[in-house]
């Protein structure tokens, strides 16, 4: 693994644009990008935990805002405006986000206080919501213990969700109108807890694991195809680069949820490594020149 940058905070939500890698520094409340210079450049500041984002089809970043309980759209002038109100879905802020090839946005929510143990009962409180391009939001899947990273296949027909507490990747069929059905275990990961994920052109998924301190490539069904280790928690991964054949991993030293607000020695790091197959589906790259 090559180290691109280090010494940052809790890093999450890597995304690729024509201008380089974007990612969020949660503890700094910043979205950053790394271009050819190798030095992180500030895109926008917004204090939110979580602070996940993705790109709309026109290249505009849209980010999850916990304080606003909304999706905020970043304009070309650097200003943030409300894209969708999420407050009617849950009093708890949403977590991860992916925008599919049709312009539909999926956001998920553990629907419980962060840091709690696996919710009791057979039905978990977590859910996935669909935000259509007109900004309307509604729940389209539930019974997720702690939904985390999400990805959509290149044909826009399957949403894959990392359920960290159940140690699974969960698949859903996507209808033409964006609604979800047919929830199933896409891959059982044993004792591993998945966080951020991405998909490749061979139909496999990469998932990052904080406790495992690695990223793992799995086939549908759970067969392990590859593994790359890091020396701290791996929070998310993304297949990017000009041909989408580079695996980018973001990680940090994780102190446990109880120390989230007081820990300072994160040493947030971005790594890269060649991947055996190019990225596919969403999150995917935006066009050259969009927003930066």
From TrEMBL:
InterPro entries: 6-blade_b-propeller_TolB-like, SGL, SMP-30, SMP-30/CGR1_Lactonase. The active site is at residue 195. One of its GO terms (molecular function) is hydrolase activity. It holds the Pfam family SGL. Binds 1 divalent metal cation per subunit. Its cofactor is Zn(2+). A divalent metal cation binds at residues 12, 148, 195. It comes from the Bacteria. Residues 12-252 form the SMP-30/Gluconolactonase/LRE-like region domain. Substrate binds at residue 95. Keywords: Hydrolase, Metal-binding, Zinc. Belongs to the SMP-30/CGR1 family. This is SMP-30/gluconolactonase/LRE family protein. It comes from Pedococcus bigeumensis.
């Amino acid at each position: 693994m090559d180290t691109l940058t280090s010494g940052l905070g809790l890093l999450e939500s890597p995304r690729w644009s024509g201008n380089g890698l974007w990612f969020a520094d949660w503890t700094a409340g910043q979205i950053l990008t790394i271009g050819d210079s190798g030095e992180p450049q500030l895109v926008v500041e917004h204090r939110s935990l979580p602070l996940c984002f993705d790109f709309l089809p026109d290249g505009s970043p849209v980010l999850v805002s916990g304080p606003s309980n909304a999706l905020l759209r970043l304009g070309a002038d650097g200003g943030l405006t409300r894209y969708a109100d999420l407050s009617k879905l849950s009093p708890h802020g949403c977590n991860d986000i992916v925008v599919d090839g049709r312009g539909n946005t999926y956001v998920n929510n553990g629907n419980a206080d962060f840091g709690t143990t696996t919710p009791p009962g057979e039905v978990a409180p977590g859910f996935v919501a669909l935000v259509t391009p007109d900004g309307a939001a509604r729940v389209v899947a539930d019974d997720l213990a702690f939904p985390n990273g999400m990805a959509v296949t290149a044909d826009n027909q399957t949403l894959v969700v990392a359920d960290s507490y159940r140690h699974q990747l969960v698949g859903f069929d996507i209808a033409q109108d964006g609604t979800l059905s047919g929830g199933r275990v896409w891959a059982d990961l044993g004792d591993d807890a998945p966080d951020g994920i991405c998909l490749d052109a061979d139909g496999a998924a990469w998932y990052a694991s904080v406790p495992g301190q690695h990223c793992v490539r799995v086939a549908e069904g759970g067969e392990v195809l590859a593994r790359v280790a890091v020396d701290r928690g791996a929070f998310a991964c993304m297949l990017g680069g000009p041909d989408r054949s580079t695996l980018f991993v973001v990680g940090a030293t994780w102190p446990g949820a109880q120390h989230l607000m007081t820990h300072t020695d994160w040493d947030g790091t971005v790594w890269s490594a060649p991947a055996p197959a190019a990225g596919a589906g969403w999150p995917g790259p935006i066009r050259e020149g969009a927003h930066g």
